[in-house]
Amino acid sequence: MRDLTRKLFNPIGSEAIEREVEEELRFHLELLTEQHLQHADTLVEARASALRRFGNVEQVKDQCVEISKRKRPFTRALKSLLILTFLAGVFLCIFGTELHVFRVGQMLITVAVMGRLFLYVRGLKPAGFRPKSDTSSPLMLNSTAKTPASLFEADNL
Amino acid sequence: MANDRTDLMQGTLELLILKTLSHDSMHGYGIAQRIHQSVDDLLKIEDGSLYPALYRMEERGWIASEWGVSENNRRAKFYKLTRAGRKHLDAERANWDRISRAVTKILQTA
To answer: What is the pLDDT of residue B3?
Structure first.
């Protein structure tokens, strides 16, 4: 029953997106661990160093999943449909001369607003309310580094 | 802690990624490695922070991704620059040059 409810409210492959993001991040972490293993004494040490360099894995995953969901064609199409429904409702309310046409317009507006609200609430994640870690400032100047200005030149990248 | 860290301008990470992808398509780990090698220890970058940036850039159409096989025969997601991305890179690079010239000029005269 729980699976069925999940499928009904989640028909557009959220799990597939999560799996894909996890696979991508896992690939990165594995290579990073292998890299750190060359200097670390144990696998545990290498893993810890890899995680330190990677940052907050869960937060990164949440952000990626959220962005992926946003860019899905289905979500985009649904949002466009809701906008059209809303506009159609407004049109009927303004130009509808009969009461039942006006009511249909009101119904369309209600459906569009409720649909948009549903998409918004569905997109909210507890992770979004957690205090942000250092990952929110991903790029920082390292003031302890000594450095030749040539490193800033474009050809070095 | 705040003293030895200075947040850089928004969009800097995107600029570094675009420049890194301008030569070749790469997976996230490859991009991170290339950036680390290029900036030496001048910038501190958490590898994980690349991914939300990559996803956002893909959403904006600056890069495209596809799954492929990595150099060590593992399934990996590769990113490449799109035409829009190349255009954005040129624009951002020109912008960066202008800003850095302006700031340098002010610092020299003040």
So the answer is: 43
Q: Are A1 and A59 within one domain? A: yes
- Name the domain count of chain A: 2
With CB atoms and an 8 Å threshold, state whether B51 touches A63.
yes
- CB distance A151–B5 less than 8 Å? no
Does the pTM of the predicted model rise above 0.80? Answer: no
Q: Within an 8 Å CB–CB cutoff, is residue A150 touching chain B?
A: no
Write down the pLDDT at residue A151.
35
Q: Does one domain contain both A106 and A96?
A: yes
Question: Which tokens in the block code for residue B69?
Answer: 């096989």
A2 in B contact zone (CB under 8 Å): no
Instruction: Tell whether A26 and A66 lie within a shared domain.
Output: yes
Helix ranges, chain A (H):
2-9, 14-37, 43-54, 57-70, 73-95, 99-123
> B12-109 — its CATH code?
1.10.10.10
Least trusted range by pLDDT, from A21-25, A91-95, B62-66: A91-95
The pLDDT, as a whole number, for residue B83 is 96
Q: Which residue of B has its CA nearest to A28?
A: B29
The reply to whether A142 falls in a domain is no
Lowest-confidence range among A41-50, A62-71, B86-95? A62-71
**d(C-alpha A105, C-alpha A99), whole Å:** 10
Q: What are phi and psi of A76, to 5 degrees?
A: -60, -45
Q: What is the ipTM of this complex?
A: 0.86
- Cβ distance B66 to B43 under 8 Å? no
Same domain, A62 and A4: yes
Q: Do B28 and A28 touch (CB under 8 A)?
A: yes
Residue A95 in domain: yes
Structural domain range at position A76:
72-125
Mean pLDDT value of segment A94-113: 87
Q: What is the pLDDT of residue B62?
A: 96
